[in-house]
Amino acid sequence: MNRPNRVDLRQVRLRVNGLTFESVRLRRRCGSGDFDILIDDPNVGCFALTAAVPDLELRDEDSEWRQVTLDELKRILADDGELAEAAEEPQASAERESFNRLVAEGEHIMNAEIALFRAGIAFLQLPFQQNKFASNLFMVLNVSKAKACLLRAGFQPKVDSETVLFDSRNGQPIQLIQGRYGLPRKS
Q1: Computed from CA positions of residues 160, 161, 167, 168, in that sequence, does the dihedral angle turn out positive or negative?
Q2: CB of 95 closer than 8 Å to CB of 157
């Protein structure tokens, strides 16, 4: 049996919100028969797929892209009966719901990070915290350049502010500030 112990790598062509990935990792959740599907990409970073991800597409060899739900993807990736049954059972733990809420609430942060990264605009999310979704403040070297990038990516400007934008997909705000940052110098 090939069960995901800690992390199990699977080769699969998956498109998430328009971005294509060649593999995913399956991570078994402690105390549960269920598992998470992780994307680990050097450009985008590592994140778990959740029901909050609106656009999942799968492509089999010699076929077209097809829309799938997270539950369908889990059933496809689960290759033994016990794991497939666990993927079909709804998971309603408070911890998982909290995580899903954080991801849904932080979608605007991820959208901004992706747009700025693709445009080659350096940024620093402030204040630096363990929970990256706790702050919507981005320090950039050039606010007007970053704002133009985010407007092209679908963010909308706040009427009475030059530095606040709203993600048009979920209405959540982000704020830009201009500043210089760098590594501390050694004495």
Answers
A1: positive
A2: no
Cβ(1)–Cβ(12) below 8 Å: no
Say if strands 137-140 and 123-126 run parallel, antiparallel, or are unpaired. Answer: antiparallel
Nearest to 36 by CA among 83, 81, 80, 2: 83
∠39-42-48 over CA atoms, to 5°? 20
173 forms bridges with which residues in the sheet?
166
- Return the higher-pLDDT residue of 166 and 50: 166
Query: pTM for the full model?
Result: 0.43
- What pLDDT, in 10s, does the model give residues 156-177? 998 888 999 988 777 788 999 9
| Residues near 177 by beta carbon (within 8 Å), at least 6 away in sequence | 126, 137, 138, 139, 140, 143, 163
DSSP H helices in the chain: 70-77, 81-88, 94-105, 107-118, 143-152
CA atoms of 160 and 74, how far apart (whole Å): 45
The sheet with strand 164-167 has its strands ordered as 123-126, 137-140, 173-178, 164-167, 155-157
User: What is the rounded distance in angstroms from the CA atom of residue 70 to the CA atom of residue 161?
Assistant: 38
Strand 35-41 and strand 123-126: the pairing is: unpaired
